[in-house]
Specification:
The chain has 312 residues and is of the alpha/beta class. 36% of the residues lie in helices and 25% in strands. It has a single domain, classed as UDP-N-acetylmuramoyl-L-alanine:D-glutamate ligase (3-Layer(aba) Sandwich), CATH 3.40.1190.20. It has helices spanning 6-9, 38-46, 64-72, 135-143, 157-162, 164-171, 181-188, 193-201, 242-257, 262-280, 293-306, and strands at residues 13-16, 20-26, 29-36, 52-58, 75-82, 88-94, 101-107, 127-130, 150-154, 176-180, 207-211, 217-221, 224-228. A 9-stranded mixed sheet has the order 5-4-1-8-9-10-11-12-13, with helices on both faces. Strands 3-2-6-7 form a 4-stranded mixed sheet. Helix 7 packs across helix 8. Bound molecules: adenosine monophosphate.
Length: 312
């Protein structure tokens, strides 16, 4: 990687989130101690488009190789604290059709006492992804920032049900929220997507991105509704981290475009859908980490062809 790499000239995206070991029960079999976490997936995805900075915590058992992989992709890892204790651990079991999953176990470990401290040079980051993590930690990160221009939050059912009040404080401070349809319904306490979107847009964010797995993603804002299809895959292995990869790619793409308007978000959703599709093709980050500029460009073009209505 050289300084001519476009990632270095674009706005760096600040990402806070989990770094984890995941134990996965997949239709293809069991996978144990898979390196994951919302920040890991999001940083790898964002680094396809721009430089990234990660704030997080790992335990003594987290592999140096993964940190080195992030660094080799232009990710500034100086905000990753190595604490004594075990790395955060999550266990989940997927349904045979991969469409749903249940959380079997969540062990906070080093996250239990984590207080994010942003390195001085992280505080002026213009673009922030508050990845899936305890909402009070998301707030602590925001409090240390100096005038970010775009703040996007992700979250999950665990925090919507367990930390709703703090999550609502986060929502009041962000520009956009990224959630899946199930989380949206849980947050808005309704089943109709459009009504749910209207309710969430009243909670603070100006834009809402709803991930719908292999049914694509939607953008809701004052300019209307946009739909991005999912890239149709023949071999789905492991959807873990697809949502985080999606969010990382959306933010990376916006950072690269240096525009945060409705049109830029539409484009970014297509980038998110494409990058997330690579993630699903392998267990953990294996396939995501192999994406090249060429494979990405090809798949974006194929995805755009799905939207081609000029041939009707
Ligand atoms: P996704 O499949 O995109 O929802 O992301 C799954 C990733 O989120 C896994 O790698 C987990 O380690 C991580 N994760 C699961 N539960 C939590 C949680 N409560 N807080 C933070 N990260 C989590």
């Amino acid at each position: 990687m050289t300084n001519a790499d476009p990632r270095f000239s674009a706005n760096p995206v600040l990402i806070v989130g989990s770094m984890a070991f995941d134990d996965l029960d997949l239709p293809s079999g069991r996978a144990r101690d898979v390196v994951g976490g919302s920040a890991t997936y999001a940083a790898i995805a964002a680094s396809l488009y721009t430089a990234a900075r990660v704030v997080g915590v790992v335990g003594h058992d987290f592999p140096d190789d993964t940190i080195a992989l992030l660094e080799s992709r232009g990710v500034d890892v100086s905000g990753i604290e190595r604490a004594s204790g075990k790395t955060f651990r999550w266990a989940g079991r997927y349904a045979a059709n991969l469409a749903s999953r249940e959380t079997l176990d969540t062990q906070l470990n080093v996250f239990a006492d984590f207080r994010p401290k942003l390195p001085e040079h992280f505080r002026d980051s213009k673009i922030v992804l508050l990845g899936n993590i305890h909402p009070s930690l998301q707030l602590e990160v925001l409090a240390q920032m100096r005038g970010p221009e775009l703040v996007v939050a992700d979250t999950m059912n665990f925090w919507i049900s367990g930390e709703r009040k703090t999550l609502l404080e986060v929502l009041a401070k962000v520009d956009a929220l990224v959630v899946n349809d199930e989380e949206l319904r849980q947050l808005a306490e309704d089943h109709n997507l459009k009504r749910c979107a209207r309710a969430v847009l009243k909670m603070g964010p100006r834009r809402l991105v709803v991930k719908r797995g292999d049914a694509g993603a939607m953008l809701f804002d004052a300019d209307g509704v946009f739909f991005a299809p999912a890239y149709p895959l023949e071999n789905e292995m492991d959807p873990t981290g697809a949502g985080d990869s999606f969010a990382g790619a959306v933010l990376g793409n916006l950072a690269r475009a240096q525009r945060f308007d409705h049109a830029a978000f539409r484009q970014a959703l297509l980038a998110g859908a494409t990058v997330a599709s690579f993630c699903v093709e392998g267990v953990g980050t294996t396939e995501l980490a192999k994406v090249t500029a060429q494979s990405l460009a090809l798949r974006v073009r194929e995805l755009m062809q799905l939207l081609d209505v000029n041939q009707l």
